[in-house]
Design brief:
187 residues; alpha+beta; Alpha-Beta Plaits; 2 domains; 5-stranded mixed β-sheet; 6 helices; elongated
Length: 187
């Protein structure tokens, strides 16, 4: 049996003894339940990797969604062609043509257009333009909706209302088209 001195010391230090007992119980449960589950998981990961189905995020191939790929490929040019077309003014005239077509489709009246600066960057070309249009508020909203659904990377950088009256607005629009340069087979 236990000596009375040992029993008295255990009673005095019962929190320490209790925590040691709880630790030992957790250790036994961890070794029997969780270690076996972890080893089964590691084995399943290894088998999946052997079959070519890696579950590790760092090893997964980066697959671009088809709609994003189509958007990027429709708005990209080979780098040399993008530089040549931007220097010749073709990209600026294409931007004005596309925006004018969208404004007329929305029922807006184009009063003036002016090509803007072209910014050559390492991976893209930014083509800017200015338009003055006459429209109603609903026509402007329709234009923005069609611009968003056009599949072209054109943004309205800013706009200002020049005059308003009799359900017609005169707007100054500054727009930018983004052309991506294809580098070495990649956009």
């Amino acid at each position: 049996m236990l000596s009375p001195i040992l029993v008295a010391q255990l009673r005095r230090n019962w929190p320490l003894v209790g925590s040691i007992v709880v630790f030992l119980l957790f250790l036994v449960v961890h070794l029997t339940v969780f270690q076996t589950a972890a080893s089964r998981y590691r084995l399943a990961i290894k088998q999946a990797a052997d079959m070519g189905m890696s579950l590790d995020a760092s090893e997964m191939p980066r697959i671009m969604p088809p709609r994003v790929f189509a958007l990027l490929s429709d708005n990209s040019l080979p780098a040399a062609e993008a530089v040549q077309k931007s220097n010749s003014g073709t990209l600026a005239s294409n931007l004005l043509e596309d925006v004018t077509r969208l404004t007329s489709h929305a029922g807006m009246e184009v009063m003036a257009t002016e090509p803007g600066a072209i910014a050559q960057q390492t991976k893209s070309v930014q083509v800017k333009a200015y338009l003055r249009v006459s429209c109603s508020y609903s026509q402007f909203i329709k234009f923005l909706d069609e611009l968003g659904n056009s599949g072209m990377l054109i943004s309205v950088d800013r706009f200002s209302v020049v005059s308003a009256g009799s359900n017609r607005l005169v707007l100054d629009l500054w727009v930018t088209r983004y052309i991506l340069k294809q580098m070495g087979g990649r956009t």
